[in-house]
Amino acid sequence: MSGGIEGLVFPIILISSIAILTDLVRGKIHNKLTYSATLIGLIHVTATLGPSGLGTSLLSVCGVLLLFLPLYYLKVLGAGDVKLMAVFAVWGGWSYALNVAFLSLLFGGIFAVINLIYRRRFMDFHFRLRAGMANLLKSPDRRERVTFDSTHRFPFALAMGGASVICLYFSPLAYLGVMK
């Protein structure tokens, strides 16, 4: 297991399973889950590692928020997805959260491309993405609004939940030589 999180297998799997289920059924990850899992995680970390563990967990949450809030503001992820990633940071720490983030973004990207191809929308998305990138090169007063079809949303908890369980046993960033 990566990062010495052997005792966290059950809570991570439980939290991931509930998040996946609610995201698939309701299309969202409920605050009851993320807030209670965060609070229980903070209590657990403080009880097992003391005040330094609490500080590390809080810094991990801040790091995850810095990484994922821009994706929320760009409407790539929902607020529940960001809060779920913060839960993983509380329970597993910064290294674990980075690995989960990397793998979940990889899984989400792969699924998005497959979904676009399946729905025959890949070329439309490609042209809109190119237009959006070209807009970045224009001066702010000459930019045009580029919109994307958001009717086919992907329950990102599926990618995050799968990544969170895989990262209990495997560190993709360590395997790639990015981190120890």
Secondary-structure blueprint of this entry?
Elements: H1 9-26, H2 31-73, H3 79-118, H4 122-137, H5 156-169, H6 172-175
Explain this structure to me?
The protein has 180 residues and is mostly helical. It has one domain. 75% of the residues lie in helices and 0% in strands. The chain is globular and about 55 Å long. The model has no long low-confidence stretch (mean pLDDT 84).
Which properties best describe this structure?
globular
Short description:
Helices cover 75% and strands 0% of the residues. The protein has helices spanning 9-26, 31-73, 79-118, 122-137, 156-169, 172-175.
Q: Give me the number of helical elements.
A: 6
Radius of gyration: 18 Å
Major beta sheet summary: none
Element order: H for helix, E for strand: HHHHHH
**Helical percentage:** over 70%
Per the principal axes of the C-alpha atoms, what is the gross shape? globular
N-to-C terminal Cα separation, in Å? 13 Å
Structural class: mainly alpha
Unreliable stretches, pLDDT < 50, 5 or more residues?
Answer: none
Count up the domains: 1
How many runs of DSSP E, i.e. beta strands?
0
The pLDDT mean sits at 84
What portion of the residues fall into strands of 2 or more residues?
under 5%
